[in-house]
Amino acid sequence: MFNKLVTSLESCPMVQRGEYHYFIHPVSDGVPLVEPALLREVAIEMVRVLDLTRVNKIVVAEAMGIHIGVALSLITDIPLCIVRKRHYDLPGEVALHQSTGYSKGELYLNGIEEGDRVVIVDDVLSTGGTMKALLEGLAVAGAEVRDVLVVIKRGECDIGRDYKALVEIEVDESGVHVKDTFF
Ligand SMILES: O=P(O)(O)OC[C@H]1O[C@H](OP(=O)(O)OP(=O)(O)O)[C@H](O)[C@@H]1O
Ligand code: HPA
């Protein structure tokens, strides 16, 4: 059940980032506080919903994929690949351009080998810019993406493949509205 996720989303604060109504929530921002019971609820549902058959790596993007990725990795014992905003210039590093509704930047993928079977998890899908960048990078690295799951789907978005979400929301000037839950 998504009692904690739904109720905390419906009461979370919002700020303007230019034209973008940005909601602030522990899963998507780490503030004001990530309660263990909320993180546990999210992690258990991620395990239930994801197809993890023969998956050997979980891929997340810095920063707000990390806490959910760690929770999932600890439960499943599947290693975590964190796509960083910092470059390391290691052999095989793949640089990606990320664009969101309020920012642009670079991401750097390391630790993926040809033939890896991965799942991608992220906190939010909004414009899809981040997810499309991750999918492109994983294709370049030669990984097979077995499943994609976001905790919070914000509006409609085509990322060129199927994906799963735990909750779907809409955001306007009055706040966050939970439209649907998928469980
Ligand atoms: O679908 P999109 O429009 O791409 O938005 C979703 C992305 O935006 C946020 O990342 P952000 O780059 O803000 O960084 P953060 O995780 O460090 O907060 C969030 O963590 C997602 O990765
Ligand atoms: O409105 C938002 N809040 C938090 N994280 C996000 N990532 C994309 N949009 C948002």
TrEMBL record:
Gene Ontology cellular-component annotations: cytoplasm
Span of domain Phosphoribosyltransferase: 69-166
Organism, as annotated: Methanogenium organophilum
Keywords: Cytoplasm, Glycosyltransferase, Purine salvage, Transferase
PANTHER family (alphabetical): HYPOXANTHINE/GUANINE PHOSPHORIBOSYLTRANSFERASE, XANTHINE PHOSPHORIBOSYLTRANSFERASE
Subunit structure as annotated in this protein's UniProt entry: Homodimer.
Enzyme Commission number: 2.4.2.8
UniProt xrefs under InterPro entries: HGPRTase-like (IPR026597), PRTase-like (IPR029057), PRTase_dom (IPR000836), Pur/Pyrimidine_PRTase (IPR050118)
Residues passing through the membrane, by range: none
Major location category of this protein: cytoplasm
Gene, per the UniProt record: hpt
Localization per Swiss-Prot or TrEMBL: Cytoplasm
Family statement: Belongs to the purine/pyrimidine phosphoribosyltransferase family. Archaeal HPRT subfamily.
Protein name per its UniProtKB record: Hypoxanthine/guanine phosphoribosyltransferase
BP term (GO), one: IMP salvage
